Fold this sequence. Notes:
Elements: H1 2-12, H2 16-19, H3 26-37, H4 41-57, H5 60-93, H6 96-105, H7 111-126, H8 132-149
Amino acid sequence: MLALQELGTALVDLNDSQLAQIPLEPDMLEALALARRLRQREARRRQLQYIGKLMRKTDHEAIQQAYDTLMQKDRMHIQLHHQAEHWRDRLLNDGNSVITEFLEHFPEASAQQLRQLVRGALKESAHNKPPSHARKLFRFVLESLKHASQ
Length: 150
């Protein structure tokens, strides 16, 4: 019973687009929406208990499976961003050897565009300008990682 209430609490924390990916009945969606709006601690606690009660009447295994799948996608997305940040930092700090290593790992990436972005980001950093090239470099690296993972 507590596990179902914890799952309900986790569902309250999701946004609307994430909730749309989980098979929920209309009364459950209403209960979740109300729990989001409640600010008083005791009222929220009672609403979460009600959500736990509703969970017992639904196919909570399907809901749990959909929630786990959604969380796995989020973890993979975060991990991909961390990898892109790591590559970007290495490209900016370690010089041409890392550019060569990156192009070996991701042969579909444009070498010319990569070198231009690195050069522009380094120039911006040296002149204390806003990091627009560093952002473009991050997006370029992220797209390369996404393309390679497909």
